Amino acid sequence: MTSAAIPLIDISASELVDTQIIEQFYTPQLLQKVLTTTLDFMQAQSDVVLPYFSEVEPSVWQHKPKQLGVYITDAVEGRALNLEARDKDYATNILSYPSELPAFIIEQMPELALGELIVCHDVVKQQAAEQHKTVAEHVTHLLVHGILHLLGFDHELGQAQQDEMEGFEIAILEQLGIGNPYLAR
What we know:
Number of helices: 8
CATH topology: Collagenase (Catalytic Domain)
Shape: globular
Strand content: 15-25%
Subcellular location: Cytoplasm
Strand order of the largest sheet: 1-2-4-3
Number of strands: 4
Structural class: alpha/beta
CATH architecture: 3-Layer(aba) Sandwich
Family: Belongs to the endoribonuclease YbeY family.
Binding site for Zn(2+): 145, 149, 155
Cofactor: Zn(2+)
GO molecular function: metalloendopeptidase activity; RNA endonuclease activity; zinc ion binding
Order of helices and strands: EHHHEHEHEHHH
């Protein structure tokens, strides 16, 4: 990031998630690296407007320290949260809850709250095995994916939006040393 601001990341987990999972896959160092790399990449895209920050002067949002909440859960709670949030009765890999603060609030706050990510590690682990990826690679991909949602990108709006978001993911993951997650292995 062009500023020296270190992201403020709050990591928490359901009581049913083993602390070893957190220590292995969701470290503050990894989350900071993923968040910083994603934000740096998006900041370098001068022709791209971040949907949730379109009314905020780029110099305002770019130089504020960022806040991100990450909550790790299991399949049972993940299913309940997905049902409540999206009316879908299954556990999903990641849910994104953007802060969507009004521009005048963002301008006043010392930090920029991006929102919350809820990661269902059981689903992530299962998908990684099915897709012949490491769990660490899949976690990183989903964190990038979730952060893009927090910035306002949405692959469910149409093919053009899906292609744009996937293109960002592929480029960001390449910077993180991870290959294209959409290629079959």
